[in-house]
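Many introductory courses stop at the sequence. We go one step further.
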Amino acid sequence: MAKLVLVRHGQSLWNLQNRFTGWTDVPLTEKGREEAKFAGEVLKYSGIAFDVAYTSVLIRAIETLEIILQVLDTEIPVIRDAALNERFYGDLQGLNKDRTREIYGKEIVHLWRRSYHIPPHGESLEDTANRTVPFLKRAILQDVTDGRNVLVVAHGNSLRSIVMYLEKYSPEEIMNVEIPTGIPYVYDIDRNGKILSKRF
């Protein structure tokens, strides 16, 4: 049995400014760095010895992972791949979320942010899953089923798509799933890929 741990990056500058971020490469805030340190301390206390880590190619996830590994005082292989990037928000990237609600209405913005099928002028969550899940199966879960403990640091929606696949959520159920920043999701997975337990 091995462990798969998912962590959403700490607060970014555009999280703080309540803006749609997507593929825009923005750094962590001081709070975001503290959240990353907290995630590292939680994982250090858990005693999990990681064999490999995965992250996106965006700086907020990369920096979060680097801080976590510093706290853990460990050096392990790190694989960066754009398959784990946040969903692409298209025309919405950079816009203030509250202002966008004023323009388009709360209901449609909620659908853009949380629904599975409806794209927010860019990728839908389904589109995001079409790149994250094949990478999850091909690389991440291969490591896990080979008995390696794996740490994945990515983004709210790329992780939502992964959690949806792992926990078999329906498109309706995934609308209510929010991945908080800096909180490790820990899955115990057997060599057949079956989830034995999960905790946050």
